[in-house]
């Protein structure tokens, strides 16, 4: 008796023998090959497309004849006529095996396909979504054997998909009857599985085969901005991205001022919860509109946020986070519904996953960075800094990961800076100061040219030069230091000390004039002594936090630095190091990870296993509390100097020579004036 | 070496040997003796009180010495001083075993104590509540080992109560932090367990030891009235009972008219859902006030209701229940929260259990009757009739149970009856008509005397005689028939035919005057021909439903009849049988079960195992659909006669002789006038 035909799947390499006439989808399922199907082999969803390969395959030891698969049948012909089937493709549920065959499963037919992140790094996200679609054909009601419609849906899932038990989101129940009748008892259901529930949960249903897609939101809920990616949960494709201001800003710029607001104003926490949820609704609505989809198709949302935002999102008074011992109401990951959070743009049954918090000051946003950047898998010692109003700092390698947060304040985002503004067209985001002439040149957002290049003024006429954004102010301070206009203690020199009228007196201190746009009706853009102090406070906090983790780890240097956060992506590593924001490393060892927290949210949105992974990882992270660590204060004071009072920064010295100036005219500096150069 | 002391618990009889010094509570737990404790043995909750018995116990083979238990310790002394300990009682967690001892566990120290139902039958409810209290001492937060407060609560439950995992009702989370701090990290939590969830669910928390009790509502949500019992979930005691009108009545008197309202008015179902939920909130609030408890202590609610009320409660359009095949959206039992139903009087985390429905016309109320009356455990064949606007009918014994519902309409409740009214003071609820004089005497609600007894008129002067209620109209029709004023076809005779002026012409038919109160400014209370027709329709539907079940079971008689429902409790069995409402059985085989549906709700509220039981039982019940069964129509027509056109009613004949009259004056009756007696 002849052997059954051999079926070999690529790229998995899985192989097995099956009786003549076995559908390719059946063979794939029995071998555990990742071949998608929503309709369960009924030839209507087209998710199980495969490409048979013909000819000799010495590698696999088979020759595939032209008649290895059954001929096209009516179902395939109709599908091709109506929708078009790519050349060489077959429907895996319709084509059956006649002889030895090699079957390629194209990426788009794999459930667990890989999606390349948009960010610079080559990391990919493997699709393993929590919510999946199942097409079912449900028995019609029978008066003589009365059962509920839901019970017959369950019976169909058991018989047709081997799903023995489900639970039902209550808000989905009311819509089930009309859907069943509209679909003629053929419907598609969305089932959500999570580790937090014993069985999959029915969260939506559509008449017939649902082809409108399934979407999720990955939301990075920051103190200042709320950023979200609308993602297709079947393909992993980002359909739309957007961000809006966090409306809580009117209750306080930074986290602690919001906690104070809640403490001082009864019901203040409730009000802040209300406005942030409204903003999320608005954002979700805008994204759905931009992507051209119904908001009812957004069935999952993942949140990452710092602990205060975490509590305010959940409707928990953040007061405990404002005082030692900074106790979180809950630190574990949470599985909720849109209804729990009173989100009204999303369907009430939409599933919400909130990443775990690491500690009272180190939130789910830091967990998301850990998920995205995986310090625990690094061979060398990596310092990851997520720069924002609060900085989340991770230090680690394969042996151990440590985390802390540091209250940098909003200066790095251009707030509390005299000419500061958000990163928007017209904002100076890069600046160079000639060490000889002390004259500046700069670039603004919206124009690629430097201000001393031809055409710059014409191209920026529309926006004007409106202010200076976060990365601009960092460069400005670093350039002032490099050009000898700012001494290590952070004092701006006067015109006589510096030899330039751009350093002009303002009250009892000096400011540096970058650009005077008053003739064009614009502002005078300066760096004031107050701006320098604000940046010094911010960078000292950041550096001290990093240094504290290094102390705890017992090291004086790190192997590499990753700058995360939307802002981190725009920081010039050299200027950051001149400023002493980050520890001294070779410049090529400073990389940007883009919005790593947002990427972590996207990973958790697309991949269920990643949720399990980060829930495990956060438990293993060593938490360091900056607020109560005496050495933090010491590190903070030493980090106030630019770049640093005591740490040597040898790598920085290889590329930059910083003028040894001092502009302190009082008698208490340690030899300042004598060492003045200019 | 001497043996360890022997400890014998009564009433369980469980026994075992324990080392000297073992606390009684510990011994009880190790033996699986049902001894309550909320504080886990800390000597503060007093739930584990026991009574040691001293002297000789030949039955148990032990002598108990006076020093069999340790002396009173400080904890017991303080407890006795502050709260008072009943004579002979000890705290099981404080008293430890020194020698052989017999320990009695009084009923109030048992978790699974038995509670006698208020109803006439001797049946008891065993306490096995889904929600229980646990006192825990929680670790304080530690900045160096940061975990959330909730995570430390979970750790305490695991360490102190051996509860390895819980889930948390989201709405409970926000309140946890203040409770922990107010209680100094000592709190009591309420955990709810159900078959629908894998692990117990945290649903409430109080500072310190919670001694304010734990309450539940058993709600019988009827088409006309909503009745509820507020029950102490620790003792089973009913603290308050009340009922209010279902405000949906303004959308339609009976179920089908409400379904029609939903069909004809877009959004009508939403409106009906809103008003019924508001009414439940009002009722819950009134009951809490009456019992003197905070509504926040009502942590569970059980609902029983017919399928239309079931759907309207849940916010599901009932339209499918108004047309064949009468498909329920879901038939299984449901576990929800107060928040799911937008109930605002109860805490959002209050757990709601809705009993399963049996079929599209046979609801959770019928399931509750089955739970209360247990036809499936009956040795003889019992017919259970729950009389209301819709009648639920169950027929069965140990071998098989059948169920149907029948649309009797509201006539049995006094609605659509010319002089009809609700059962309230002033309503006639019993009537006798003298067969010779044809004169009536009657009783009214609020007065024990008959109208021909001395003092009747004085005692009823305050209320007046205002109308006739459901049981009154049934008696009136039966008495008219017995007195020869009504013929088997349901025609009231005229004055000439009957020889009494109380039978007076009204239009083309006759009415019977019961009482003329017009001189006192009251109504003329009559029974009209229309009233007779309404009662005939109702009783025919009821009888036909019962008969259909008997057909399906293959029997012509039943062994006994149980009348359930608040109204069923007031029906006179003899009159019901004269009317032909129920099949012919010996009169002493007709009993009343009171509000069996409400009792079923109370059982499900107090006993978790009962929920599992009824969920199993409803699946085994044979459902009979009256609306599509041709024989139902035939039975209905035959049942129109009083008592019945074809069924012989031999038991009835033993006690009542019905005059063989006919008042049909047209030529089409079969010999009517010739057989006239009067």
TrEMBL record, chains A, B:
Residues 381-652 form the RACo C-terminal domain. Residues 215-372 form the RACo-like middle region domain. GO terms for molecular function: iron-sulfur cluster binding. InterPro entries: 2Fe-2S_ferredoxin-like_sf (IPR036010), 2Fe-2S_ferredoxin-type (IPR001041), Beta-grasp_dom_sf (IPR012675), Corrinoid_activation_enz (IPR052911), Raco-like_middle (IPR041414), Raco-like_middle_sf (IPR042259), RACo_C (IPR027980), RACo_linker (IPR040506). Residues 121-211 form the RACo linker region domain. It comes from the Bacteria. This is Na(+)-translocating NADH-quinone reductase subunit F.
């Amino acid at each position: 008796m002849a052997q059954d035909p051999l079926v070999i799947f690529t790229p998995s390499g899985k192989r097995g023998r099956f009786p003549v006439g076995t559908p390719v989808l059946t063979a794939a399922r029995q071998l555990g090959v990742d071949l998608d199907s929503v309709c369960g082999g009924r030839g209507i969803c087209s998710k199980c497309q495969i490409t048979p390969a013909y000819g000799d395959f010495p590698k696999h030891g088979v020759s595939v004849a032209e008649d290895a698969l059954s001929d096209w049948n009516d179902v395939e012909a109709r599908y091709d006529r109506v929708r078009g089937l790519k050349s060489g493709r077959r429907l895996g549920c319709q084509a059956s095996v006649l002889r030895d065959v090699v079957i390629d499963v194209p990426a788009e037919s794999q459930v667990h396909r890989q999606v390349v992140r948009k960010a610079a790094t080559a990391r990919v996200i493997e699709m393993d979504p929590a919510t999946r679609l199942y097409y079912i054909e449900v028995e019609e009601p029978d008066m003589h054997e009365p059962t509920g419609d839901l019970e017959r849906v369950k019976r169909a899932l058991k018989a047709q998909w081997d799903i023995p038990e489900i639970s039902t989101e209550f808000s989905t129940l009311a819509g089930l009857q009309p859907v069943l009748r509209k679909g003629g008892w053929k419907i598609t259901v969305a089932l959500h599985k999570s580790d937090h529930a014993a069985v999959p949960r029915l969260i939506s249903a559509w008449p017939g085969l649902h082809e409108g897609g399934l979407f999720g939101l990955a939301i990075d809920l920051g103190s200042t901005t709320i950023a979200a990616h609308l993602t297709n949960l079947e393909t992993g494709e980002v359909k739309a991205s957007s961000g809006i201001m966090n409306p809580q800003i009117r209750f306080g710029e930074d986290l602690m001022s919001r906690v104070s607001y809640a403490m001082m104003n009864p019901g203040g926490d409730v009000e802040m919860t209300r406005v942030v949820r409204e903003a999320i609704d608005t954002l979700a609505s805008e994204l759905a509109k931009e992507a051209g989809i119904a908001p009812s198709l957004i069935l999952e949302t993942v949140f990452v946020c710092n602990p205060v935002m975490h509590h305010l999102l959940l409707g928990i008074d953040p007061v405990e986070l404002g005082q030692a011992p900074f106790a979180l109401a809950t630190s574990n990951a949470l599985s909720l519904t849109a209804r729990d959070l009173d989100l009204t743009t999303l369907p009430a049954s939409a599933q919400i996953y909130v990443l775990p918090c690491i500690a009272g000051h180190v939130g789910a946003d830091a967990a998301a960075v850990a998920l995205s950047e995986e310090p625990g898998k690094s061979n060398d010692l990596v310092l990851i800094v997520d720069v924002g109003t609060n900085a989340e700092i991770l230090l680690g390698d394969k042996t151990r990961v440590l985390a802390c947060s540091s209250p940098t304040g909003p200066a790095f985002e251009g707030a509390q800076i005299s000419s500061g503004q958000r990163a928007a067209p017209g904002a100076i985001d890069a600046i160079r100061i000639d060490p000889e002439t002390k004259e500046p040149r700069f670039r603004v957002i919206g124009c690629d040219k430097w201000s001393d290049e031809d055409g710059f003024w014409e191209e920026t006429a529309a926006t004007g030069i409106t202010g200076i954004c976060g990365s601009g102010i960092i460069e400005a301070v670093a350039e002032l230091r490099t050009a000898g206009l700012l001494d290590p203690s952070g004092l701006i020199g006067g015109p006589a000390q510096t030899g330039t009228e751009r350093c002009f007196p303002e009250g009892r201190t000096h400011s540096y004039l970058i650009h005077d746009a008053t003739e064009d009706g614009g502002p005078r853009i300066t760096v004031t002594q107050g701006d320098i102090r604000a940046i010094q406070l911010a960078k000292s906090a950041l550096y001290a936090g990093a240094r504290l983790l290094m102390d705890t780890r017992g090291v004086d240097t790190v192997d590499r630095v990753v700058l995360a956060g939307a802002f981190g992506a725009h920081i010039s590593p050299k200027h950051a190091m001149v400023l002493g924001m980050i520890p001294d490393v070779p410049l090529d060892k400073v990389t940007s990870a883009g919005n790593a927290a947002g990427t972590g949210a996207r990973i958790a949105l697309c991949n269920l296993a990643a949720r399990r992974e980060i829930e495990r990882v956060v438990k293993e992270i060593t938490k360091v509390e900056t607020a109560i660590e005496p050495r933090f204060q010491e590190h903070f004071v030493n980090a106030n100097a630019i770049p640093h009072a005591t740490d040597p920064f040898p790598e920085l010295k290889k590329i930059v020579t910083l003028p040894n100036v001092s502009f302190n005219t009082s008698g208490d500096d340690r030899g300042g004036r004598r060492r003045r150069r200019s």
